[in-house]
Amino acid sequence: MMSKTVKTLCSVALLASVSATAHAAISETEARKLGKQLTPMGAIQAGNADGTIPAWTGGVSSSPKGFRTGQHHPDPFANDKPLFKITAQNYKQYAEKLTVGQIQMFEQYPDSFYMNVYPSRRSAAYPERVYEATRQAATSAELISNGNGVTKSANWSGIPFPIPSSGVEVIWNHVLRYRGTGSAQRQIVQAVVNRDGDYSLVKFEDEFYPIYADPGITEEELDNVLIYFKQEVISPARLAGGILLVHETLNQEKEHRKAWVYNPGQRRVRRAPNVAFDNPREASDGLATSDQFDMYNGSPERYNMELKGREEKFISYNNYRLHSNEVKYADILKPLHVNPELVRWELHRVHVVDATLKDGQRHIYKRRTFYVDEDSWQVAAVDIYDNRDKLWRVSFGHMIVYYDIPAAWTTVEEHIDLQSGRYLVIGMNNEEPSTYTFGLDRSAGDYRPSSLRRAGRR
């Protein structure tokens, strides 16, 4: 049975959704649980009662000898073997630990979908300064603007709500999770995969600058911008040269994100107000919305976010094999879903957030259920419903720990359309010369609209 202590900690997650007013920060007494009963990031430190989830003991916080940032990450758990396989024939034995979307995958694709379940490795780790920043932020950060903004964080590098009492706090933790200091650059490939397995590839070069993670930065210095994002299409030739620039805002009610696009044919930079919410994502062939990038991004204003509780679920974790440069894109991209033999599933605790569309708001997704990893605040899976309340799409965030930062993040996102039998994959870099290069020296000036004109003339 679950211990009294763990029951008490879990009960925190069962409180009702946030009200329209600012939500007060937690008390010093609650914050003292961080690093004791709770991990420094707010997860339950102890393992579960039957030992299938271990205690968190620090995660993977150092790189193997000879590794350099930008390389494909060697698997620290390469010797692990699957404990068991979940198939269409036996999935009902594990139904309590499966998401609604996973159950539907077994029922809809019984001949091809399965889950290899590995030992659970609580590998998520962050720098010590992020743990201290989380401790400081926990007693100062508040929701404002009907939950559409965060303010008064004493240290922006930390998770603002490590002991959340509402679904929108969990979503803000995902949006504001630590992803390194300075800019990160990567070349990635996106694939649209048709029902028969045919696919087309688009290559991007991305840059992220999560300015809120800069040491010592203040809310005034942020000037309501939390992330700069720039994405250039590298191929195919018919799309190459197009550039998107985004300034993501901290108070989404005060000011929605600002976005611009550079059109190489016109050699012009234009504002792009539609890069948000349910507008189609670049080159996604309608298989994903703008707010599905990074599993979820942007303003939460269109949804009521209800925190359902903390549950044990199989989620995609430590997927170094899926990330490996020994794997080809053709090995990954199979009909209906990615190659299940390359995916590692583990049992972890997740915060479950049920997002339902508010009255008077519009979105092609009427409801979404988010499964958010308690150790990293990364959204690991999403069940997505259409306006008929029918499960439409399923998203999986296939995670690794980038131990050169360290931080947990997806290596590949998979967005599956159950109604069309098609899916979208983004983040693959297996055949590229590098993965993320972290810690680039950039400034806010490198992410101004004028930088798009300079980039377009190269």
Helix content: 10-25%
The name of the CATH architecture is: Clam
Number of domains: 1
CA-atom Rg in angstroms: 21 Å
Could you name the CATH homologous superfamily?
A: Lipoprotein localisation LolA/LolB/LppX
Report the order of strands and helices. Answer: HHEHEHEEHEEHEEEEEHHEEEEEEEH
CATH class, named: Mainly Beta
Mean pLDDT: 93
Mind summarizing the main beta sheet?
14 strands, antiparallel
Q: How do the helices and strands line up, and which of them pair or pack?
A:
Layout: H1 4-11, H2 28-31, E1 84-86, H3 100-108, E2 115-117, H4 128-138, E3 142-144, E4 149-151, H5 167-175, E5 183-193, E6 199-209, H6 219-222, E7 225-235, E8 243-249, E9 258-263, E10 268-271, E11 303-316, H7 320-323, H8 329-332, E12 345-357, E13 367-373, E14 379-385, E15 391-402, E16 407-417, E17 422-428, E18 437-440, H9 449-456
Antiparallel strand pairs: 1-2, 3-4, 5-6, 5-17, 5-18, 6-7, 7-8, 8-9, 9-10, 11-12, 12-13, 13-14, 14-15, 15-16, 16-17
